[in-house]
């Protein structure tokens, strides 16, 4: 929307140009489920048929939202390759054509166009993210002094001198050229907070609360409520290339949240501790060296990594190596609120491997509460265009 709310990664530029990193997952303070052994993609993980699609208990509103989300995805998925190894562009032509003209029962659309598949063991783990709304201003003013930076012009990819030629494989890291012409890592959060970019990078807005803005950066997008009551939507433009650290884990290890404290292991607990301990808030937040840069959006929803607007309770972040973008996904989770139909339209920096998902809940107080507490296991079923499984067997 990241995400990323991302949000997530934008289009690739040149080999040495900035390629934004994906939005990290919501930091709930809970211990992340350890990743399963990672295969190359869904095809190499093993794919088998799921239950008959007619057996799924579709709800009218759920199916309507998923159909609208799928329809929005078609302009993108018909023109991009599927890295999961499951589908081709041609596979999506039939469902996309049907979606463009569909006017009857939305559940019937899915049962007529798709079949279900289980990737790997199908054992799913889901977190949640949302689009936060915080106080902000387009201009700096008393009470609005936290800079919302645009993407810096000096953020590039290159090889630091300390990395030997023989070790320079894959994409070069993000960084900048210093005054001596040497390529170095880009400024980390603590340096940016201290003013390293002040006067050097365009500031598109100013936030009122550094704690709220910290969590908006993790989400990758958000709404800034202006002093006049108007709303400015900002979305992910890029990242500084420094390490993302979910502060919940070190806070648990230091005994600041969790058992024996008044602060639960949830986003709300993390924020409560940071507000109650302002003398250490920067120290804790700076454990996360990552910094997110933003752009203003004129869309009616935040943009996911598929570059279409994402909507609450319809869109889900996936690892595109294991779920095709645009694919409907049925979750059956221990947390019943996440059960039902979603559409793969986003990704996230830690959403890696088969059956790892990040559910998007929109904006507002309820979305914030659900996303902040979402950490659930269950089973995932991927909806693939009919005939896909037979072709994969050949």
Describe the protein.
InterPro entries: 3D_dom, MltA, MltA_B, RlpA-like_sf. Strand 14 and strand 15 (340-346) form a beta hairpin. The radius of gyration is 21 Å and the shape is globular. It has 11 helices and 17 strands. 24% of the residues lie in helices and 24% in strands. The chain starts with 41 loop residues before the first helix and ends with a helix.
SSE map:
Layout: H1 42-45, E1 47-49, H2 60-77, H3 93-101, H4 106-113, E2 114-119, E3 123-131, E4 133-137, E5 146-149, E6 156-157, E7 174-177, E8 183-185, H5 189-193, E9 203-207, H6 210-219, E10 221-225, E11 231-239, H7 248-253, H8 267-276, H9 278-285, E12 292-297, E13 315-317, E14 328-333, E15 340-346, E16 356-363, H10 365-373, E17 375-385, H11 388-393
Parallel strand pairs: 3-16, 4-10, 13-15
Antiparallel strand pairs: 1-2, 2-17, 3-17, 4-9, 5-9, 6-7, 7-8, 10-11, 11-12, 13-16, 14-15, 14-17
Helix pairs in contact: 2-4, 8-9
Question: How would you concisely characterize the structure shown here?
Answer:
By secondary structure, the protein is α+β, with helices and mostly antiparallel strands.
